[in-house]
Amino acid sequence: MNIRVLLADDHNMFRQGLRALLEKEPGLSVVAEAEDGRQALDMVTKMKPDVVVMDVGMPNLNGIEATRRVAEAVPDTNVLALSMHSDRRFVREMFSAGASGYLLKDSAFQELALAIRTVADDRTYLSPGVTGAVIKDFVEHRTGIDASVFSLLTARQREVLQLTAEGNTTKDIAAELRVSVKTVESHRQKIMAKLDVHSIAELTKYAVREGLTSI
Q1: Which residue range forms the structural domain that includes residue 113?
Q2: How far apart are CA 102 and CA 81, in angstroms?
Q3: Are 57 and 82 spatial neighbours (Cβ–Cβ below 8 Å)?
Q4: CA 112 to CA 129: how far, in whole Å?
Q5: Residues 13, 104: one domain?
Q6: Which pTM does this prediction carry?
Q7: Starting at the edge strand that comes first in sequence, how are the strands of the sheet with 28-34 ordered?
Q8: Which of 9, 15, 59, 88 could form a disulfide with 133 if both were Cys (CB 3.0 to 4.6 A apart)?
Q9: Is residue 111 assigned to a domain?
């Protein structure tokens, strides 16, 4: 069985390095590369790879939102999160979005190859480096503790927040999301009200802190 892989990461050199290594692995082939979440979603919809290796933190549309849309649009494609973040929020939200595995970027390459084969076989892969975070998150979730951006804001509001934090104008955001300027302004007002923040600077700090963007 040949496993068709799509790489989604905003660092070109990192993608090229992964591609070179993966193409030496028997039974694995890289069919495409994407540099942000929107491009990844478009490519997955057209090419329907077996596995997407998805960076969690990407510009324009982060890996969590992209994973959610991939799971809805192409359910037969499995997503393996590849991230520098071991924070339980990222792990939880990637799995909630529909990812089948989560691997840290400092893992050895052979672990990546194993993880790809595992999720391609419709099984779950969890990097040993995040196991503790997952257990802690499970315990706290049972007590009802949850106040992350993913529970407070809708998917569209998170998009507007990320694009705002990355410096896009209201007009740019409206064009990107194919909605009116008034709709974007309405979303932003609701975001500020929910988060109790009162400036773009505060919104940006919040988005960075919550991992929606690294800008």
Answers
A1: 3-140
A2: 5
A3: no
A4: 13
A5: yes
A6: 0.78
A7: 28-34, 3-8, 51-55, 78-83, 101-104, 125-126
A8: 88
A9: yes
Determine what percent of the chain falls in helix, strand and coil, rounding each to the nearest 5: 55, 15, 30
Instruction: Provide the token pair at 148.
Output: 């992350």
Q: Taking the alpha carbons of 85, 88, 94, 100 in that order, is the dihedral positive or negative?
A: positive
Mean pLDDT by runs of 10 across the 215 residues of the chain is: 94 94 94 96 96 94 94 96 84 91 92 96 88 62 59 89 92 93 93 89 85 74
CATH number, domain of 18, equals 3.40.50.2300
Sign of CA dihedral 60, 123, 146, 155: positive
123 in the Ramachandran plot: left (φ > 0), alpha (ψ -120 to 50) or beta? Answer: beta
Alpha-carbon distance values, 211 to 25, 52, 54 (Å): 32, 20, 15
pLDDT at residue 212 in the model: 81
Residues 144 and 118: their CA atoms lie apart, in Å, by 31
DSSP code, position 38: H
Report the C-alpha dihedral over residues 61, 142, 79, 97, rounded to 10 degrees. -40
Handedness of CA 32, 15, 9, 97 (dihedral sign): positive
Q: Are residues 136 and 118 in the same domain?
A: yes
Return contacts of 173-179, CB within 8 angstroms, 24+ apart: 176/60
Give a yes or no: residue 205 inside a domain: yes
- Give the Cα separation of 189 and 197 in Å (integer): 10
Distance CA 123, CA 120 (A): 7
